[in-house]
């Protein structure tokens, strides 16, 4: 169960995450730089006294998740589509995770609203000991009733201290294997419905700009790679980080090769950009929930 101090930190992380999310949404305009948006969002989190729980994700149209600007990569906001902003804050390792969709043009409004409604419907039914199956059923029904598809291989997830994905997945459909699994008091969970008019599942894209530590310490790596690994361990703990963050401390021309070396040696895991398999536009909304004995707190409203 959470102590009062832990609840205070989790609520603070949620508040800062929500403010950063809304700031990011306000900056999304056609032609805007994804790098400038993410930099401003991340700097806001730091200015508010928190750490960044994971790199600001700014995923455009058929890109469902895991896009953050790379060392050289800087996507521009298009003149039409859905832009997902997924952010989180950390207070002493107590995390928040929240997302919203910005609709540019009216063409995809119904899709986005179906996903937003799915999350609202989950908020309305959420309670201690709720079945994970019931959450998935609510999400799927909300999205399908409007003629769209939930993305079945993207899920919500439990969260623990310094651990954004703490073991239990929350499917966006009624998975029968989850019928008897429940969200017990003392659980923190992110619920994040994704919807599309595409095939309803995502595939890995060719690039990755987000990484995290595996805990493995390979011996046969270059001295430069060893120095980078030590820096990452000290700076980011077990939380995800962006390749672009490293060029503040390491030579820009070397960082990508060193990350590849550490990934090949399994000291790091990379997170490829996730793309809707049918290239369908994707919408996403997300909140973080604290399950207590007698109530549920949504920390990112």
UniProtKB/TrEMBL annotation:
- Residue sites binding a divalent metal cation 1 per the record: 86, 97, 286
Among its keywords, does the record have Hydrolase?
Answer: yes
Q: Provide the top EC class.
A: hydrolase
Q: Which UniProt keywords apply?
A: Aminopeptidase, Hydrolase, Metal-binding, Protease
**Keyword Protease listed:** yes
**Which terms does the UniProt entry file under GO BP?**
proteolysis
UniProt binding sites for a divalent metal cation 2:
97, 157, 192, 286
Q: Could you tell me what reaction this enzyme catalyses? A: Release of N-terminal amino acids, preferentially methionine, from peptides and arylamides
Domain named Peptidase M24: residues: 8-202
EC number(s) recorded for this UniProt protein: 3.4.11.18
Where is it found, in Gene Ontology cellular component terms?
Answer: cytoplasm
Q: Which cofactor does it need?
A: Co(2+); Zn(2+); Mn(2+); Fe(2+)
- State where substrate binds: 66, 165
What binding details are noted for the cofactor? Answer: Binds 2 divalent metal cations per subunit. Has a high-affinity and a low affinity metal-binding site. The true nature of the physiological cofactor is under debate. The enzyme is active with cobalt, zinc, manganese or divalent iron ions. Most likely, methionine aminopeptidases function as mononuclear Fe(2+)-metalloproteases under physiological conditions, and the catalytically relevant metal-binding site has been assigned to the histidine-containing high-affinity site.
Q: Which GO terms describe its molecular function?
A: initiator methionyl aminopeptidase activity; metal ion binding; metalloaminopeptidase activity
Q: Please report which protein family the annotation says this sequence is part of.
A: Belongs to the peptidase M24A family. Methionine aminopeptidase archaeal type 2 subfamily.
Record text on subunit structure and interactions: Monomer.
Q: State its role.
A: Removes the N-terminal methionine from nascent proteins. The N-terminal methionine is often cleaved when the second residue in the primary sequence is small and uncharged (Met-Ala-, Cys, Gly, Pro, Ser, Thr, or Val).
- HAMAP family cross-referenced by the UniProt entry: MetAP_2_arc
**What is the designated name of this protein?**
Methionine aminopeptidase
Q: Which organism is it from?
A: Caldisphaera lagunensis (strain DSM 15908 / JCM 11604 / ANMR 0165 / IC-154)
- Gene designation per UniProt: map
């Amino acid at each position: 169960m959470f102590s009062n101090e832990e609840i205070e930190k989790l609520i603070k992380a949620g508040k800062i995450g929500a403010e950063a999310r809304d700031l990011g949404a306000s900056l999304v305009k056609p032609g805007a730089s994804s790098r400038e948006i993410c930099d401003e969002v991340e700097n806001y989190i730091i200015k508010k006294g928190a750490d960044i729980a994971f790199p600001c994700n700014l995923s455009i149209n058929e890109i469902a998740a895991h896009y953050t600007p790379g060392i050289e990569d800087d996507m521009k906001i298009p003149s039409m589509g859905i832009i997902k902003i997924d952010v989180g804050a950390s207070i002493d390792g107590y995390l928040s995770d929240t997302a919203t969709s910005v609709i540019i043009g009216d063409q995809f409004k119904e899709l986005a609203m179906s996903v937003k409604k799915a999350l609202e419907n989950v908020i309305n039914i959420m309670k201690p000991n709720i079945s994970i199956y019931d959450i998935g059923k609510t999400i799927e029904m909300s999205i399908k009733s409007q003629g769209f598809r939930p993305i079945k291989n993207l899920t919500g997830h439990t969260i623990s201290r310094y651990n954004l994905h703490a073991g239990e997945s929350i499917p966006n459909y009624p998975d029968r294997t989850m019928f008897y699994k429940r969200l017990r008091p003392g659980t923190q969970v992110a619920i994040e419905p994704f919807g599309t008019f595409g095939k309803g599942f995502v595939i890995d894209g060719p690039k990755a700009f987000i990484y995290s530590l595996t805990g493995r310490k390979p011996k046969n790596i270059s001295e430069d790679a060893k120095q980078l690994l030590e820096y990452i361990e000290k700076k980011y703990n077990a939380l995800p980080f962006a390749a672009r963050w490293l060029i503040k401390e390491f030579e820009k021309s070397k960082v990508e090769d060193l990350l590849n070396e550490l990934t090949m040696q399994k000291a790091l895991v990379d997170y490829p950009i996730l793309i809707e398999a049918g290239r369908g536009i994707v919408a996403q909304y997300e909140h973080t929930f604290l399950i207590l004995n007698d109530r549920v707190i949504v920390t990112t409203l």
